[in-house]
C-alpha cells in the first residue's frame, strides 16, 4: 500500500512538458509573438557582421507582421549570458515580455561568416531551433534564419530569401532591378533604351517575363537569369502584354490585341501552341 503513491507519481505525465508554440495568423485571437534578439557574440573580425545579422533579422521579423521584436534597451539579462539553455536565466527574459529568444555567435572563416544561431522558447525554458549557417553575406545569413523562424512558428515557408523584381525609370530608358524582400541590395539585371512594363516571375525563379517595345511594338520577352539572356516569347497582333506564368511554369497567359479587339490567350512557355 505504501508504494501506490510512488507508482502514481511514476505514471503521471511530466508536469513541465508543454506543447510546441504555434502562431495561427488567421485566428481571431492572433497577436504578434514577442521575440527578443540578444546581441550576437562575435570574434574581432566578425563584430560588424554580427551587428548586421541581428539588425537584418530584427527587420525581417518585424516586416513579417507576426512578430513583435522587443527593444534591446529593455533587456535585463546579463550580456555575458551563455548560449546553452542551462546558462540562460529565462526569468530575466520573461520579465521583459519575451516568449521567443534568439541568441548566437558569429565568426569569420575562409568561406565567409559562420553563424551559430539558437531559438529558445522562454516559458518552458528550452531550445527550440538550432542552425549553423556559413555565407559570405551577413544579410543572407539573417534572411535564412528569419525564414527558419517563420517556418518553425507557422509551419509555412518564409519569404526572406526570395527577391522582388521592379522597374526603374532612368534617363533614356528603363531598368529591371532585383531587391531583397526588405527593399535592400538592389542589383540591375537588364537595361533597355526603350519601354518595358509588367515584369512577372516564373515560379521557380529562373525567368522573368516582361513586355518590351524592343521589336517596335509591345511583345512578350523573357529574361533567363542564370545566363542573363533575353528571348522573344510571343508577338501576336498589334500588342501582346501582361504575361503571367502558370504555377507549374509550363504555360503563359497574356493579352493580345488584334484589329482593336483584345483577348486573353494561353501559350506554352516557349511561345508555341497559342
What's this entry about, in short?
The protein is of the alpha+beta class and 274 residues long. It has four helices and 16 strands.
How would you summarize the topology of this molecule?
Layout: H1 4-11, E1 33-37, E2 41-42, H2 47-64, E3 67-69, H3 90-94, E4 100-109, E5 112-121, E6 126-135, H4 138-154, E7 163-170, E8 173-180, E9 187-192, E10 196-201, E11 207-212, E12 219-224, E13 229-234, E14 239-245, E15 251-258, E16 261-268
Parallel strand pairs: 1-3, 1-4, 2-4
Antiparallel strand pairs: 4-5, 5-6, 7-8, 8-9, 10-11, 11-12, 12-13, 14-15, 15-16
Describe what this molecule looks like in 3D.
It is a single chain. By secondary structure, the protein is an alpha+beta fold. Helix content is 18%, strand content 40%. It is built from four helices and 16 strands. The strands form four sheets. Strands 1, 2, 3, 4, 5 and 6 form a six-stranded mixed sheet that branches. It is elongated, with a radius of gyration of 26 Å.
Strand content: 35-45%
H/E element order: HEEHEHEEEHEEEEEEEEEE
Count of DSSP-assigned helices: 4
Rg over CA atoms, rounded to whole Å, is: 26 Å
Number of strands: 16
**Unreliable stretches:** 1-16
Mean pLDDT: 89
Distance between the termini: 84 Å
Shape: elongated
Key traits:
elongated; six-stranded mixed beta sheet; four-stranded antiparallel beta sheet; 16 strands; 4 helices; 274 residues
Amino acid at each position: 500500500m505504501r508504494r501506490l503513491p510512488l507508482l502514481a507519481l511514476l505514471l503521471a505525465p511530466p508536469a513541465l512538458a508543454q506543447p510546441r508554440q504555434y502562431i495561427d495568423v488567421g485566428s481571431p485571437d492572433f497577436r504578434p509573438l514577442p521575440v527578443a534578439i540578444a546581441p550576437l557574440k562575435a570574434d574581432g573580425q566578425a563584430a560588424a557582421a554580427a551587428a548586421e545579422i541581428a539588425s537584418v533579422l530584427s527587420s525581417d521579423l518585424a516586416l513579417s507582421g507576426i512578430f513583435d521584436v522587443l527593444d534591446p534597451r529593455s533587456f535585463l539579462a546579463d550580456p555575458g549570458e551563455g548560449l546553452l539553455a542551462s546558462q540562460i536565466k529565462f526569468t530575466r527574459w520573461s520579465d521583459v515580455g519575451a516568449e521567443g529568444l534568439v541568441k548566437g555567435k558569429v565568426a569569420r572563416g575562409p568561406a565567409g561568416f559562420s553563424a551559430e544561431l539558437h531559438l529558445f522558447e522562454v516559458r518552458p525554458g528550452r531550445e527550440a531551433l538550432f542552425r549553423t549557417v556559413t555565407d559570405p553575406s551577413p544579410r543572407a545569413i539573417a534572411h535564412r534564419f528569419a525564414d527558419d523562424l517563420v517556418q518553425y512558428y507557422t509551419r509555412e515557408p518564409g519569404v526572406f530569401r526570395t527577391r522582388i523584381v521592379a522597374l526603374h525609370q532612368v534617363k533614356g530608358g528603363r531598368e529591371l532591378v532585383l531587391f531583397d524582400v526588405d527593399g535592400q541590395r538592389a542589383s540591375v539585371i537588364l537595361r533597355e533604351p526603350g519601354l518595358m512594363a509588367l515584369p512577372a516571375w516564373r515560379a521557380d525563379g529562373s525567368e522573368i517575363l516582361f513586355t518590351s517595345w524592343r521589336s517596335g511594338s509591345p511583345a512578350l520577352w523573357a529574361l533567363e537569369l542564370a545566363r542573363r539572356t533575353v528571348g522573344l516569347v510571343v508577338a501576336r497582333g498589334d500588342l501582346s502584354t501582361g504575361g503571367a506564368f502558370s504555377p507549374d511554369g509550363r504555360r503563359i497567359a497574356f493579352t493580345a490585341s488584334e484589329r482593336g479587339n483584345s483577348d486573353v490567350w494561353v501559350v506554352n512557355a516557349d511561345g508555341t501552341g497559342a
